Amino acid sequence: MNFLVGISIDGPQELHDRYRRSNSGNGTFAKVIAAIERLKSYQVEFNTLTVINNVNVHYPLEVYHFLKSIGSKHMQFIELLETGTPNIDFSGHSENTFRIIDFFCASHGLWQVYVNHFYAMG
After folding, report:
1. Looking at residue 65, which CATH number applies to its domain?
2. pTM for the full model?
């Protein structure tokens, strides 16, 4: 039986720990990396889920190359949706949509962007 385990990681430590914190307020990066290493030791395939936020959106190449360096062969990227905004319309594009598209295009041909879909090329 094969499994594909999803791991949430938002980039290198300084980007990941910005928002991913434990209840005690500590960054979770070290625990996530330890979990990835454990999965690898048992040869369990994993994918990474990266939330693109107002910080890591400015570092697309760093995030992509970091994820490759930790062995991610399957990457998912989702946009952080802001909460607390009255009457927000989730059917359209947020003001960050174009920054998100730039995030993918900045990877110099590693990504091909289609309307509402992103397909990995490399």
Report:
1. 3.30.750
2. 0.75
